[in-house]
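Help!! Second protein's tokens look totally different from the first
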Amino acid sequence: MANNVPVKSDQHKNLKVASQRSLEHVSDQHIAPINALEFAQAATSYPIILVKEPESSNYRSVVMLGLEAGENLYYSKAKWDAIYVPQSVSLVPFSLGLDPEKEKTLTTCIDLDSPFVGEDKDNALFDADGKETDFFKSAQESLGRLYESEVMTDKFIKELEANDLLLELELSITYNNNQNKKLVGLFGINEKKLTELSDEKVIDFHKRGLFIPIHAMLGSAAQINRLAQLRNQSNSKQKVSGIRFTPVTAEAKK
């Protein structure tokens, strides 16, 4: 469990962060948040889907890292088996959180329990005068860009909802022992509804760049085959013999 606290110069003046940081903290994470600006790069390695937040009816965009909870097929032997790493993963031990001293204000937080954090590490957050170092400023700027990207992603998803472009999916998996499994609660782009958009709406989407993340999502579905391949290359006894996304029918929802 992460111990994320707001960074304060008086409390963390001696705190430092390691230069070399592994991705072991997500070794048992089967999905990871992704923002729309990352879709084009992420689509070359991961399936990109939407999932509903359990506490609300809001959607969030994620990349699939495994075929079951607790499984990350991209992390093996302390290495990440993909060139692109999602920003939400690579920015650890930093994150954004609410500032308890300022109502409704986000601030930079750090995980005090992270193995990459301590007074004996490489990169100081503050200098001898208590001023922020270039290293810490860079981390804050990255978090700021990530937040702006997440806001834009929320607007993008609302556009998909407003134009009825979301399609509920299930992932059907067949194993070599003839067992079948289905992953539900997944959402993608409704290609049929996409082709039915009015000319006016197509021009509007094109001018606002919305087709870039849309087509990235659609193309990323093929990466589910890579997940199956990674699963079969792992030590798992259950090998995948077939895998595919299928739309959830109205009858199946009843």
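Here's the second one for comparison:
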Amino acid sequence: MQAAIELFERQGYVATTVGDIAAAAQTAVQTVYSAYGSKVGVLAAAHDVALAGDEEPVPIAEREWFRALAEASTAAEAWRCALEQMQMSTARVAPIYTAMMAAEADPDVAALMRSLRAQRAEFSRLLVDQVAGRPGGEQVDRARVADLVYATESVESYSLLVTQCGWSREQWRDWVHDLVALELRRDAGRPQDAD
């Protein structure tokens, strides 16, 4: 899988063939097709490995770090712990996700991207439910915070601010942290700009 990740990142999806992947992995083309079904199947698996940091077939919401959020003493602490894990995942997956966005004209890649975006939106909701379930999160507007997590803790914001604008990964992480932390402190029942 590492061979596929490196090829997609270096050459892009369109220029990389299943033959290239098989050659780099020192295996037969048919072995790649048997394992992943298609080139876009390899791309989906490469994305998942980059995101998770390993090849274990364990959904993120079932991973130890996510389950441990339930033990955090406050919502703010749970958010801080979650973001530490998520920013590492985003940095790992950014190069392959960028290659995927560049190939989105391909109908199969476009369908994969729609699925991945839906999964990320659902994960944002699950994460906020976990974080807001800790003390201090009782008044959180969970839908609003989930939207904010979805928008800010993303490859798109990472690429704009880190890759294009030259921010450090830590500056980007702190920006994401502070925006969401502000929402976690907001009283969801208080009208905005009320006197």
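Reply: Different proteins will give different token patterns, so don't panic. The chain has a mean pLDDT of 92.
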